[in-house]
Write a structure and sequence with these properties.
alpha/beta, two-stranded antiparallel ribbon, 15 helices, 59% helix, elongated, 12% strand, 316 residues
Length: 316
């Protein structure tokens, strides 16, 4: 449990809730129901064992934050509890609710124990991969998925890593549980869809690049040969070479083969782009108090930026 002040609310509440959900209990020393609710929340924090952080804010001592949150939710009484997730206030409840109702509230917002353990293993796997311990990283990711099969971040990282080390059959096996999701146009997942493109290219029969290049030299509009060469480069992780061939198709015929060149080009950009990180910096402020963080992009990659510009110029 932590006490929130004007000095620490950004670090503990905004940034803290980007690491784990934070339940903010707004109370006052003179409030009878607050004295009833407080021990229940402390008990639940212990029982949930790290799945959320309990924070307390004395509304008499820090009225600026208490008032702003009360106005945001249209609440005029305490105790008032607000759940912060990913740097933002997302839900709340008023009054000393029974323990069972508080549990139901928490379960809507806090990760399951298995999900929490899987997230920790994904973070460890990323560190191992960065150090070059690829087999250990694969093992961590496989265990993370055994713990939480619905963790798409772990699955993306595992399939990507298996493709990087040339284990295509294992990559396909790991990908199959999300294959339908990757192909779902109603609720698309760009990162999973990009994996599907890379996996398909990696599973294609071995091509003869010299023959393909000869066919292209003979006919610049031999799009089948050029696309096959792009797929060959993609399978070999020569991503920029693949995009160069795809761009030639796009510039000559944007709609060729149901825009296969453009879709593959976009998929490669997605594979190369790191996911955004969250930060409370630059978040909008209200009344001088910053209460909402936002996702910000990691430092841009000049190569990715260059190829995005190339695609934009070819399309428009």
């Amino acid at each position: 449990m932590i006490d929130i002040t004007l000095q620490n609310f950004e670090a503990e509440l905004i940034l803290g809730s980007q690491q784990q959900p934070v339940l903010l209990d707004i109370w006052a020393p003179w409030c009878g129901p607050c004295k009833t609710l407080g021990p229940v929340l402390e008990k639940l924090e212990a029982e949930y064992a790290g799945r959320f952080q309990l924070a307390k804010l004395n509304s008499d001592e820090v009225p600026e934050i208490a008032t702003q949150l009360s106005q945001m939710f249209g609440v005029r009484s305490i105790p008032f509890c607000v759940m912060f997730v990913d740097g933002q206030p997302v839900d709340g409840f008023v009054g000393a609710l029974p323990e069972a109702q508080i549990r139901s509230f928490l379960d809507k917002h806090v990760p399951e124990g298995a999900a929490l353990a899987a997230e920790a293993e994904v973070a460890e796997a990323e560190e191992l991969a960065a150090e070059g311990s690829l087999e250990a990283a694969v093992g961590k990711l496989q265990h993370a998925l055994q713990t939480d099969p619905g963790n798409d971040v772990a699955r993306f990282d595992l399939v990507k890593l298996l493709l990087e080390v040339g284990k295509v059959a294992a990559a396909r096996e790991a990908f199959e549980p999300v294959a339908a999701k990757a192909a779902d146009t109603l609720s698309p997942s760009p990162r999973l869809a990009a994996l599907a493109v890379w996996l398909t290219a990696s599973e294609a029969p071995a091509a003869d690049p010299a023959a393909l290049q000869a066919a292209i030299a003979a006919n610049k509009r031999d799009f089948d040969a050029r696309f096959a060469l792009a797929q060959h480069h993609l399978a070999g992780q020569r991503f920029t070479e693949a995009m160069d061939e795809l761009l030639e198709i796009i510039m000559r015929d944007k709609a060729w083969n149901d825009q296969a060149a453009r879709k593959t080009y976009v998929a490669i950009l997605e594979l190369l782009t790191k996911p955004p990180v969250k930060s409370a910096a630059d978040a909008p402020k209200s009344g001088g108090i910053e209460l909402a963080g936002k996702a910000v992009a990691v430092q841009s990659d000049p190569v990715i930026d260059q190829y995005r510009r190339k695609l934009s110029m070819a399309l428009f």
